[in-house]
Design goal:
Structural class: alpha+beta
Strand order of the largest sheet: 5-2-10-11
Helix content: 40-55%
Number of strands: 11
CATH architecture: Alpha Horseshoe
Oligomer: single chain
Shape: globular
Number of domains: 1
Radius of gyration: 23 Å
Largest sheet: 4 strands, mixed
CATH topology: Serine Threonine Protein Phosphatase 5, Tetratricopeptide repeat
Number of helices: 18
Order of helices and strands: HHHEHEHHHHHHHHEEEHEEEEHHHHEEH
Strand content: 5-15%
Distance between the termini: 20 Å
């Protein structure tokens, strides 16, 4: 961790220098030697929060390769990167010893800057106390977002009976590249850390979404709901997701809504493309994606019209109705796969921060777990609201007469229909592994060969948690690895 911080420190320092240069007057340059400028004014810290460091990540490709909705085919699979092959096989060791994993370094860059803002902005020059608290609140929200990913990668799924002793991730609260070694906190401590950051931030965050790349109160509420969802604390998750939807619905800033594919995928619609059959719907850029309320993005290398190695399994493909317009993000493959597979062809650049459809699906699940199944304020209401924007109304109906367990499972199927090939399935696989309703499930990857033979890789409970990269362990003597 220390070396990863050091490797990125010059980049980060340059960023802060440039931001300061943009906002400082000549008289300030005459006092502070050139090349030694650091953030000092409230506006400097505000500009740091606009950094592209907080926008571009490399997580979706990794998460997608772990999802059980995929199957693979050789010889195409055999020419993929070793990390893709190891992830798909659920191997114990993913990273080569000498590698600084891009997933870690991208998150660590963001964490460094978030901590810098958290620890320094209240003492900055200029700006009101309200402005400073708002900037700090954004950084606290961002830090919690980073730790959601750290836990999703390197800690066990949350289990209340063992979280007090399960190993979490190191709690890094300073922007100090020389501090070492770090040790791992308990999983309880890490989850409490995320909850505290978000609950502290919420009162000082704006209700209006003024920029998709800046945190808002609705975003923080939805992230807090996601943390509680990972913990299996559904009443707490429901409270926060309800609040998030109320705030987002009342938003008068940049447009925030769910795309209606019935309108947006036809001529003149925002998602329409003349090459939709071969390239998928039009790519919406991050600032213009009305479904996004936190503009993080990933280039997902597993998604393209040339992708022949990972495709959607026939079991998951069968979850889509023939008129489900989400199928337009896929096309059929004629390779030697089981009948019914689909290749994901778009969007290559994915919005991965927090999107409104996922928030509604979170609420649908929480309502189902509260046994609110049909009628006003129910799981079926949220599901119908989303489905009517993904297919013709006649096909959007939610089955009637479901029991609570059936409705919960239907919500999970809808999550797959909406979020397949985005990496979100890994989040669900982990948390459902300790859910009594789903704990008997097994997760398997199948590798098909042109000869007709199949290799199967079963996800063992240990590999719901990735091992800590060797470089991080070497930087922190005494840090315990995962089994």
């Amino acid at each position: 961790m220390k070396n990863i911080l050091k490797n990125n420190f010059k980049i980060l320092l340059t960023l802060i220098l440039l931001l300061s240069l943009l906002s400082c007057k000549k008289s300030f340059l005459e006092v502070v030697p050139k090349g030694k400028l650091i953030a000092s004014t409230t506006n400097d810290y505000n500009m740091i929060m606009n950094s592209s460091t907080f926008t571009n990540y490399t997580l979706a490709t990794l998460y997608t390769a772990l999802g059980d909705e995929l199957i693979a085919r050789d010889p195409f699979f055999g020419v993929r990167t070793l990390i893709d092959q190891r992830l798909f096989r659920y191997e114990d060791n993913i990273y080569n010893p000498e590698v600084d994993p891009s997933e870690i370094s991208a998150l660590t860059k963001s964490l460094y800057l978030f901590n810098k803002v958290i620890n320094e902005v209240m003492d900055s020059d200029g700006g009101t106390d309200d402005e400073k608290r708002a900037i700090k609140a954004e950084a606290l929200t961002g830090r919690a977002w980073v730790y959601i990913h750290y836990t999703n990668l390197f800690t066990k799924p949350y289990n209340s009976s063992t979280a007090a002793t399960d190993l979490g991730f190191p709690l890094i609260m300073e922007s100090d590249i020389n501090k070492s070694p770090y040790s791992r906190a308990t999983l309880n401590e890490v989850y409490n850390f995320m909850i505290n950051d978000l609950t502290t931030a919420i009162p000082d965050l704006p209700l209006i979404v003024s920029s998709r790349h800046r945190a808002s109160r609705g975003l923080a509420k939805s992230l807090l709901g996601k943390v509680y969802l990972a913990m299996g604390k559904y009443p707490e998750a429901l409270t926060n997701v309800n609040d998030a939807i109320s705030i987002i619905t009342a938003n008068t800033g940049v447009p925030t809504r769910i795309y209606d594919f019935n309108i947006e995928m036809v001529v003149g619609g925002a998602l329409y493309s003349t090459s939709m059959a071969t390239s998928g719907p039009t790519l919406i850029t991050s600032p213009n994606n009305v479904e996004s309320i936190y503009g993080k993005q990933d280039i997902n290398s597993h998604i393209s019209s040339a992708n022949n190695y990972f495709v959607l399994s026939p079991e998951v493909t069968a979850l889509y109705g023939v008129n489900d317009l989400r199928r337009k993000y896929y096309n059929n493959t004629t390779l030697t796969y089981p009948v019914g597979c689909m290749r994901r062809i778009a969007p290559i650049i994915q919005a991965t921060g927090m999107n409104i459809p996922e928030i509604y699906l979170m609420r649908a699940e929480c309502r189902a777990r509260a046994n609110s199944l049909y009628g006003a304020g129910s799981a079926a209401e949220d599901l119908l609201f989303l489905r009517q924007k993904r297919m013709p109304n006649a096909d959007a109906v939610v089955p009637v007469g479901y029991t609570q367990t059936q409705m919960i499972k239907y919500v999970m199927d809808e999550r797959l229909r909406e979020l397949a090939f985005t990496g979100t399935r890994w989040f669900d696989m982990r948390r459902l592994s300790v859910d009594p309703l789903f704990s008997a499930n097994t997760y398997t990857h199948k590798l098909y060969y042109a000869t007709g033979s199949i290799d199967s890789y079963v996800l063992r409970p240990e590999r719901l948690t990735l091992r800590i990269p060797t470089r991080v362990l070497n930087d922190n003597p005494g840090m315990k690895d995962n089994p």
